[in-house]
Amino acid sequence: MSEQLILDLYLPQPPSFEGFVPGENAEPLFMLAEWAAGATDIRFLYLWGGDGVGKSYLLDAAARRLAGALYINAARETLPDFIDPAAALIVDNVGALDPDQQIRLFDHYNTLREGSGRLLAAGSLPPMQLDLRDDLTTRLGWGLVYQLKALSDADKIAALKAQAREAGFELPPEVADYLLRHTARDLASLRAVLDQANRYALSTKRPVTVPLIRDVLAGDRHV
């Protein structure tokens, strides 16, 4: 199997609600899907949690699910000057908003609230603990607020085993354990290493074992 064919077979899948491993986050995942489908009266939703819990993944998935949604990552993009009162606005990393952008999001919130629009936002802390304007943090806390909790090791292993089965092989327990002990522990990083290991295994006709994972992590083996 050629390298190009292997790469074509293992292109990353775009974020989706179905691809998110819920763990203890079943309720916020359900409400987010309802929000994106317009199947709930809740128009304002805020997600918070530490790095690697899936906030950006879910906001990206929501933007893909909801046609016409405006997605802004405040860490690298600015909010528009004006917004349709009926729009769906998605803002990631609200803690990165500078003072001018905070005022703009506050104004947008009021515009959406007075119209029929909706807002989905995410940050690293609960609204009232963010280092933002008080009037903005109050607005962000008016809707539903959910903490996204990190997956347990058992959840991560289950997700990696499912990924392996989809790729056509069984993940040995010792490989899963090695990944948890020797890589970044968020699921996105674990999945990326396993995907790279599988591509390398296919190209070299070797099974996915601890020695193969060790080679991949050494950085001198890749497809």
From TrEMBL:
Residues 153-217 form the Hda lid domain. Pfam families: Hda_lid. PANTHER family: CHROMOSOMAL REPLICATION INITIATOR PROTEIN DNAA, DNAA REGULATORY INACTIVATOR HDA. Coiled coil: none annotated. This is DnaA regulatory inactivator Hda.
